[in-house]
Amino acid sequence: MGTKKRIGKLLKMFMQFVLVFSMLFSAMEWNGFSVYAENQERANAACDTIGRPGVKVSLKKVSGGVETSQIMTSLIGKKEELIVDVVMDAEFDKGEALGLSLQMNLPYLYYGESKEILYTTNIEDVPYDQRGDQLMGIQARVVDGQDFDVSDTTKLYKGSMQITSAASVKASAPQTVRVALSFYGPVPENAAVSIEVGGGYKKYVTEDSVSCEINYVIGPGKSENSTYTLINSNLTWESVTEQVGEPVMWDKYNYMTYKVTMKNTSVDEDSYFDSFDLNFTVPSFSEKSYGVLDQDIMAWIYNENGDPIKNNDLEITDKSYVGVPSQGGVLVYDVTGKTEEELKKWDLDTYSNVSDESLVYHYTNNRIINIPVKNKRINKEEERVYYVAIPFANNFPESLNYTFNTKTYPTIYFGQDFHGQKH
Fold it and tell me: Which residues contact 183 (CB under 8 A, 6 or more apart)?
């Protein structure tokens, strides 16, 4: 009996110990949960107050190609690469963004029913007979992934490129990936295509180390400078402007004649251009108290259905003008193919013996004479030549001795209003 009593007493003590331990553990567990809940509540409150800190994704050209006068646009040849930096930058001044991702849209090109060039990032949109070795578009290759998770610099991305990074973006500490862009497939000469970049991040960490699930995304092409246009062209060209003869400078309309030559100097047989502008800046009386008069430049409005219409409105507007020999306006003639002997017979003082039709031009608020030329294809080693006769008034001060500066800015167009300009 003594032994049984001792065992019973020990069991009772053990059960009391277990009961006390359980109560103590439960209290500790509840206290821990309570602290966690309080911390989580504070974190949620902090995340609710920060909103959605933004990032922006942009493109910056590094090398390659030939830039045009239109920003974020370059010409690249069929075997060339354009190197760009894709930059993700913070739009917040505190904290950091984690779990970064970048997306670049790389369109496929294909022909529509009317043989027009169409674009898509979905391969299913491309007709089956234009896939395989006939597939064409723009492709990307990561040159330097830096902090992004890219190890293969030979992989070619088509349609879309999506890459991630375990690094973070902080204020004044952007993340960059360097990419090489190139055309592939039978892309036609002068075809233009635009790539777009976007991206985002998963988590934002405040300066107090509070982690917030944001899942921020900005779509491709939505940030400033996040779209870059590439034009498939190996084109090289030149423009030469020469003065022809000397004006009399005593008549009402004293024509200063310029010969403008537009030449295709390309090596590639397929390189051509067929639309361009000739832009002239000359001294204007309204700006310098000598030079051309607005009423002389805008003397006649072009009438596609008949004779020019006399212009009585001297307000500069988006109108089309045409010159009339010895009656005002700028005279513009396509003299391509004319011999020197033929041109020597022209009366450059009055143009009264010239039967050719003068071309249309525009006149801008900053006094630029703009002469558009369309559908005049210039192939390799070909050229087109124009005479431009600008009427000057006899109002030059003697101190200038009838000398002044005229500047020309030819601009060629590649389609979709992309253009390149030479000064």
Answer: 76, 78, 136, 137, 138, 139, 230, 232
Give the per-residue pLDDT at 2.
57
The 10 Å Cβ neighbour count of residue 276 is 23
Cβ burial, residue 340 (10 Å; 0-12/13-18/19+):
exposed
Cα distance between residue 247 and residue 389, in whole Å: 10
Q: Which tokens sit at 391?
A: 């009427």
Strands 66-67 and 211-218: unpaired
Among 15-19, 64-68, 122-126, 173-177, name the one with the lowest average pLDDT: 15-19
Give the pTM.
0.70
- Give residue 423's pLDDT: 45
Q: 21: part of which helix (H) or strand (E)?
A: helix 2-50
Residues sharing a CB contact under 8 Å with residue 354, sequence separation 6 or more, in sequence order: 325, 331, 333, 346, 347
Longest dimension (CA), the chain: 147
Q: How far is Cα 166 from Cα 101, in angstroms, rounded to an integer?
A: 9
- Tens digit of pLDDT for each residue in 277-287? 999 988 777 66
Q: Which of 273, 397, 283, 378 is nearest to 334 (CA)?
A: 378
Q: Return phi, psi of residue 75, to 5°.
A: -90, 135
Does residue 228 contact residue 105 with C-beta atoms inside 8 Å?
no
139 within 8 A of 194, measured Cβ to Cβ: no
